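--- STAGE predict ---
source: upstream dedup step, 1 unique chain passed
mode: sequence only
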Amino acid sequence: MRIFLATLLSLLAANSFAYTIKSIKYDGMVQISESVALRMLKFEIGDDVDDEMLDESIKMYYKQGYFEDIWVEMDKEGALTYHLKEKPLISMIELKGWKENESEAMDRIIQIKVGSLYDEKKIEAAKSRIIEAINQEAKIDSVVEISKELLENGSYKITFLVNEGEEIIIEELLYSGVSALDSDDFNELVANKEREFMGWLWGRNDGKMKVADLEYDPLRIRDLYMQHGYLDIDVKQPFVKVSFDNYTADMSYQIKEGEVYNVGAIIIEQETNVIDDALVKEQIKLEIGKPFNIETFRDDSQRIKTLIADLSYAFVQIVPDLKKNKEKGEVDVIFKIMPGDKVKIRNVVISGNSRTLDRIIRRELYLGPGDMYSLTDLMDSRNSLGRLGFFEGNTIEEKRIDNRTIDLVVKVKEAPTGNIQVGGGYGSYGGLLISVALNDRNIWGSGIDIGVKAERSSLTSNYSFSISNPRLNDSDFSGNFSVYTSNYEYNDYAVLSDGFATGIGHRFTRHTSGHIGYGYSANSYEFDDTITTVDTFYFEDYSKSSVTASVKFDNTDDFYLPRKGFMLSQSIEAAGMGADASFVKSRTNFGAFRGLEEWFGFDVIARYKARLYYVKESGYLPVAERFYMGGIGSVRGYESYSLSPTIENPDSTATEDRRIGGELTASNSFELSFPLLPKAKIRLVTYLDWGYISASGDALATDIVNYPYLSNGISRGGFGAGLEWFSPVGPIQLMFSKPLAEEEGDKTSMFEFTMGQRF
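--- STAGE serialize ---
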């Protein structure tokens, strides 16, 4: 025993022996610099260290994640050397058997970059993400193997070998216990649906099981019941019976509906009284005595939050509560308001604007340093930046400084505003039309719009210069000026126009602006020498001097690709004032936009666009000032401006009837835009257009009584699909159209494209 104790004491003394460090060296370290490594140590040269301190330093280095192995050596001279074996790099990553050529899958699912350190945990996590992604495609029993190859340079090549599983098709879906609602309504909500006949057709249910959604579908059914007052609704997880012989499944839900609860009372509880309860109740759409609706309940909570937040309570919390009385079948709805303190904006920080000047961004913000916080002002600021069209996206982050102060951090990502715009189309009659424009909507980051346009085809030429400033001297006033010359050739004549326009506008509210402008043009005609019969009524040279007043409402959230809001504009042009042309023209345009992601689960955008134009003669209405229909902006599927009332051509040698234009035209467009290649910013759009154009004939009756209408009251439509691409040089639209209600003599257009226009 004495010998054992003596030996143990000797070992303890040896292990606790302290070493004096004379120097520290590193062998095999690349990822961390020597100076950084030295700063990590809890000791330095000249200190005494023991084995425990060295062991702790090894653990500390190992936790950095760069090394496979670490050991130390200490020589007799006090030189401490750390030997480090770093993890190898990954120099190649391959995905085989699934999404092999999709770089998006590498970024979104694998999430391992070439050049990163080899890490078993990260590779296993990537494997799990691949399997999960395949499961979401309704495939089970997928297998992912990992191949690791050590290359000559010491790095690894990692290959994910994927063997996709089989798709599970839901053959039968049953709901037990359903009586109050129609189970067919559930199919609008759940992701897993029963296969329908010819389910492979677009719009039909293909029955593919979405494994990742199985746990969420019962919640969707439950939410629908709660929209109808069934607060005791109980929806069990679905029972799924899978046949692995043919990979089909039967599913069933067990549902206990319970009873409907009506709203018994609506109670407002303010932790601190900051607003009259009556004003809060004005925001509430739930009604006492009516069935409770969970969706309305959520919307009410959000409206109350906005109301309080607009009073500068940035950190307000609305805690909703429900107290059920089963005997009465009633529920008391309680909104607990915890406002916190009033909050002031300390500073507004702008970032990401490599081109656009800070002041251009700041003048669109409704909150600045020293202002009291307002949630509505914050949301309106985001939308205002989006409507500029200068940025691909923007966010305004609220950085909390303390309970009464925040900073707003505005982050923008510049979009191409200076570009070469190209437009054109191809028609069965007119051939190819090309237009080219040099335009910058934000020249030198100043917010000023300058454009030079040149359009040329076998029949037309148009050249123009324009400049506009939407915020003169950063005020609410705007100004514009343009000058142009054009030449439009027809079968036996050409129209030449030279003119200019100028105007000034004012922004009355955040969403409403007005404009008044003046324009003058001189218009003349040239004729083919071979033509001897000319109806001079149509070809009298004329001048136009007009004033146009307009007003516009726009609360959309983006310039190029709005997902919410609408636009409405109305303009009145009065021509006369010493010139030949004399008329009054009205133009009404409307557009409504709605993102449907909450319904479809992905970024679908619905658009409705309409226009109504009318002109009334008050002296002389030239044919060139009338309306024509067709092409992008009115009715796709027909050549631009080709749809018009016509009369018998007074030239007996002419092969076409004479278009005289309309005095009234209206058109509607309904579009659905789908993400096609989100990373490349390419979307698929489908559309249906319909329009109408007519001429009363009153203004021409005395001159063309001998040439009766051959067509009037024309109604045409078109449908098709196209691509919308927000390219590096601006937005591009490629439209493929099919005309509807086509008649003999119509000039159809199969393909049109534009660049630089909003979608």
